[in-house]
Amino acid sequence: MVRGKTQMKRIENATSRQVTFSKRRNGLLKKAFELSVLCDAEVSLIIFSPKGKLYEFASSNMQDTIERYLRHTKDRVSSKPVSEENMQHLKYEAANMMKKIEQLEASKRKLLGEGIGSCSIEELQQIEQQLEKSVKCIRARKTQVFKEQIEQLKQKEKALAAENEKLSQKWGSHENEVWSNKNQESGRGDEESSPSSEVETQLFIGLPCSSRK
């Protein structure tokens, strides 16, 4: 019996569609396995059924194969030559960028008071408002910096005062110890310079004895 040619369109009958899916899935998995064995190829196959069930085959680690694929596609995209359409877009972006830079340079010169001879009253008022706004921002920032510096100096002053107090207490304790040692040494010196030994004296009252002839 000759098999008829299968039409490439969705099978409307649900049972026939499920049977066909099972047969084709098994055949595809078998072909992937044969390709990996016969040709020593790294093959990975991922299939999701209409109900979302996962079927997969990998001749090696699936995650390693996916990472290898992502690296390959990334390198291929990065090495892809720039097309004519992309080149035109880049030129357009570069021209817009140069125009914006020129406008910024002109605005900067006007803020510095240069090239304002051709400005109208409205433009001059706008420049004046911009300068006033800039001055306000600068003064506010200046005040904030002053406050921060004053706070830092106060903190340093407190730290130095605490350190000075600590050193004063330490020096006072050391000075008292030195005076105490000096007093003890002075007391010992006085005791050594005045000995308590008694000297015996004999006192004889009367005429001296004369020798007999």
UniProtKB/TrEMBL annotation:
Subcellular location, record wording: Nucleus
Occurrences of domain MADS-box (ranges): 1-61
Main location: nucleus
Region Disordered, annotated ranges: 164-213
Residue ranges of domain K-box in the record: 87-177
Record's keyword terms, sorted: DNA-binding, Nucleus, Transcription, Transcription regulation
PROSITE patterns attached to this UniProt entry: K_BOX, MADS_BOX_1, MADS_BOX_2
Gene3D superfamilies: Transcription factor, MADS-box
Biased segments, Basic and acidic residues type: 164-177
Protein name according to UniProt: MADS-box protein SOC1
Organism encoding this protein: Camelina sativa
